[in-house]
Specification:
Elements (H helix, E strand, L loop, with lengths): L3 H43 L4 H40 L2
Helix pairs in contact: 1-2
Length: 92
């Protein structure tokens, strides 16, 4: 027979591993967003001389940044809910 405390500890360790993975993903995504913001600033300051070309590039980069930010927000929200559900089931 399996010890319920061992099962709970195993589930809690799994939830902790999931939380670490989520934090690592958020860190990675924030680095990508920072790189995009740097590219936008570079385009503003040192981009092609035609303002129209810079605006097109900036618009594309901002759209990508928005997508990444929304993806990160959705992912972290859903993962937080899964962790809450897991922890509530363990009555932690």
């Amino acid at each position: 027979m399996t010890d319920p405390k061992l099962v709970s500890l195993t589930a809690l360790m799994g939830a902790a591993d999931d939380a670490i993975e989520q934090v690592e993903y958020a860190h990675y995504q924030s680095q990508r967003l920072a790189a995009l913001m740097g590219a936008i600033l570079t385009t503003i300051d040192h981009g092609p001389s035609a303002i129209e070309a810079r605006l097109i590039r900036i618009t594309d980069l901002v759209g990508l940044a928005q997508y990444l930010a929304e993806d990160l927000a959705n992912y972290t929200s859903s993962q937080a809910e899964e962790l809450r559900t897991t922890l509530n089931a363990l009555e932690v």
